[in-house]
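task queued by scheduler; priority normal; single chain, no ligands, no partner chains; default sampling; output format set to structure tokens
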Amino acid sequence: MRAVLEDAIRCLAGEIGPTRERAQLAADAREWVAARDARWPFSFDNICDGMGFDSGSLRERLLRNAPVIPFAGGEPSVVRREKRHRPAEDDIVKMIRSGQPLRVVAETFGISVSKVSILSCGLASRLKAERDDQIRSLRQAGWTHRALAAHFGLSRIRILRICARREEREEDSRTAA
């Protein structure tokens, strides 16, 4: 059942089959996905039910996201998906900072979850560097390790290590000169 569903999805996307037949295969796959015939054992609904998928939501997503492969004079033409409008990374970062799940952010901007994950990791490292600089400046201003730990929600050992990293860098720069 899984192989039937995978082949239908790949046909719908125009990924398999001879080049000259891909448009027809995509049209057939689109028709199969759209049909609601529960009497046929290999209908889209029965295969989805057998695999534990919600056929309605899967059907909606497949038909919405599948590229349309047009015929040109009876011959299929090469089709590429339109280039997506690239959202501003600032908007994505704002959503990530607000605590939205990566999947929600990806769906909002029409990009992959992996792209959002990469942006999230970059954001995390920038935020961590900003936080560490703030911890070091507060430590130099006279805050105790315990007070910093309570303020930032970190362990006292973590605060000690963050402050020690700066001291090591300062020592390295003095010995290099």
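post-processing summary
- Residues 93 and 124 are 10 Å apart (CA to CA).
- The first helix runs from residue 2 to 12.
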